[in-house]
Amino acid sequence: MKKSLIALGVLAACSTIAFAESNVTLYGVLEGGVVVGKAKGSDTTVQVSPGFDQGDRWGFKGVEDLGNGYNVGFILEQGFNMDDGTESIAGDAFSREAFMYVTGNFGRLGLGRTGALSCGAQSNTILTGWALGTGYGGSSWTSAAMGNDFGRISNVVAYRTPVFSGFSGHLMYSNGTGTDTAKWSGNNHYYGVGLLYDANNIRSSLIFEVLDNKGTAVNDAAISSAFSVVAQSHFNSTLADAFAANKDEKVANLSASKALYEINYGLEYNMGKVTPMFAYQWAHQNGGRKTHMFGLSAKVSVGGGDALIGARYMFGKASYNTADKIEASGITGLRAVEDDINAWNIGAAYVYPLSKNTVIKAYAGYVDAGKGWKAVEEVRYNGWQTYLGIRQNF
């Protein structure tokens, strides 16, 4: 009996130690505000917008010390819309991130659902060089007219090396960006390689990514959307609607099954109150586009808050299909077209902290597209936006 009590006491002590070494945190972000915008040729709109810059979310993250320098951790993060309480992706739990990892002297190895290396969000991103980040509407580095990030992807295996003199290597592979239930050649695979330097007041990254679209078309909704936008720049609104109505059966003729390639390079130099930044992106067959983009921006500490300013220019070509003949009954005789495109954007934001966890945000931005996109009546391509909102972290 005495031995049993001693054994139970030892087990209880061990359990207490293990529990004490575990750390689980509940966290979240709430952001809401008002967006006023006007696209070329359209009316001014006023919207109550949740998560305009930083998406509304809640989540759990935890780390357990395994001893000998090894840790195991997890991140579970769900997105939602604060204006109506709905899920950001209907029916998906922890759609923003569901990631488990092990760290040690070998680096970090993890798997699950997370953001791509250039996503600009989630625990594996290393994107640098643009002060306005991947939020702020038309001034987002990944806005529609400018860039196209790889977003969040499922079925990921990700590895990060230890840090050597400020440098770390990053590798990521997805066995199926949506699902991987088909045979290997029938899944969309993602490959990412990145190098990050973070030391001596410098933060810089170089990222190369591929989406191979093996055996499957690229995201049909995204391609169909791009198809409709391009149509607007070649036909009046009535004909564009007719063109768009037939886009689904024609979408296979686009470069939907071609691999997408993207390179992002960013450089930031923290000078104290001012952090100047430079960013560059090369994209090939990105939604039928072949583009170069350059951005100059800065973060400036002023008036107790941070001012974010940026300007950039994108140019290249867009491939799509157009019609040789348009009839009342529909569209016939589609042929391939490659248009020159360009766009420029300026934007500025101010972030002022009311407390440790609460900030006020103000933003104004303008996008102007030319050549093949000059007639697109959409604020992300041609128009202005302003935003005033509040964000709270918990």
Can you characterise this structure?
This protein has a 16-stranded antiparallel barrel with strand order 1-3-4-5-6-7-8-9-10-11-12-13-14-15-16-17. It has a single domain (24-393), classed as Beta Barrel (Porin). 11% of the residues lie in helices and 53% in strands. The termini are far apart. Residues 1-20, 217-240, 245-256 and 323-329 have low confidence and may be disordered. The protein is mainly β and 394 residues long. Helix 2 (220-232) packs antiparallel against helix 3. The longest helix has 19 residues, at 2-20. Strand 5 (97-104) and strand 6 (107-115) form a beta hairpin. The chain has helices at residues 2-20, 220-232, 237-245, 247-250; strands spanning 22-39, 44-50, 57-67, 70-79, 97-104, 107-115, 152-160, 167-174, 190-199, 202-211, 260-269, 274-284, 289-302, 305-327, 330-353, 358-371, 383-393.
* Structural category: mainly beta
Give the overall average pLDDT.
Answer: 83
- The rough form would be described as globular
CATH superfamily: Porin
From N to C, what is the helix and strand string?
HEEEEEEEEEEHHHEEEEEEE
Task: Give helix % range.
Answer: 10-25%
Number of domains: 1
CATH architecture: Beta Barrel
User: What is the count of DSSP helices, taking H or I runs of 4+ residues?
Assistant: 4
- State the low-pLDDT regions, or none: 1-20, 217-240, 245-256, 323-329
**Biggest sheet architecture:** 16 strands, antiparallel, barrel
How much of the sequence lies in strands comes to over 45%
CATH topology: Porin
Compute the separation of the termini in Å. 49 Å
Radius of gyration: 24 Å
The top level CATH class name: Mainly Beta
DSSP, total strands: 17
* Assembly classification: single chain
